[in-house]
Every structure is written in C-alpha cells, then in structure tokens.
Predict the 3D structure of the following.
Amino acid sequence: MDDGSQRAPLCPGTDGDYDVLQWDTREDCEVRQILDRVADKWSLLVIALLDRRSLRFTELRRKIDGISQRMLTVTLRQLERDGLISRTVHPVVPPRVDYELTPLGATLHDTIRSLVSWTEQHQNEIATARAAYDIRVEAEKEAADQEAAERDALARDVLAGRR
C-alpha cells in the first residue's frame, strides 16, 4: 500500500537497492557523507559530551584532549549544519555561545552509546587480536629480513667467485 510518500534512494543511481558497495564507493552519496561526519572521532566525542547538557565552546575544547580550536569550530559547524546540535548565542559581554544536542542528535547519541557498549564488551578480544597481528607481522618482517640477508650473502659469494 502506497501512502503517497517517497523515500529518496540511498545514493544517486541505486534506485533504493541496499548494497553497501553502492553507497560506500560513491563520493556524492549522502549516506556516505553522513556516515563520514558522524563516525569522525571529533564528532563522536562532541556528541557524547553534549548528552543531556549544553556546553560552551571553551568547555568542549578543554574536555576533548588533542582537538585544535579550528578543528572544534569546523566540527561544531558541520554538526550544526546536519541538524545534530544547536548553537545558542547569548547577548552578553564577553560573548557566550552554548551548544547542545537537538532531538535528532540525541537519537544519534543512543546509537553511539550502543557502539561504546559493544566496544567495552569486546575490548579484550580486540586487544588479543591486535597482539596476535603484531606478533605475526613482526615474525613476517624478521623472516623477510633473514631471506634478504641470505640473498645478499649468496650474491656476494657469486660475485666473489665462491659459487
């Protein structure tokens, strides 16, 4: 039954077919652009910090270790443009600007909370996988270095006429 509303396709040219490769590889895809924004490390931190409270720019900057003033400004503008946060300018001297989640941003915060919960539940497995990977890569590097040293020794022997 058609209710008269139409959903926009996931990305131009996909006709609404859900295929992760279609939206993941197209630069002009809105889904990809939105995911790029909300999955950005700074956006995630801003959204998490604004859960159920408003914060001033300086408070956000102080709470987010490693973010530059410019990067925080860009992140806040992008989140505001996407409708995820609102910005309130208070007519006082010195100027005071508060940021808070919009209702849309609050729904995203719930999703982020689920992602954080998953991460907490699986952090030991991930640490184990990382350690195994690092050991494997180091062993492969050592084997490659050993093989290169043996080839070099063989080449020196050949050049010296010993083989």
User: Anything to note?
Assistant: The radius of gyration is 26 Å. The first helix runs from residue 20 to 25.
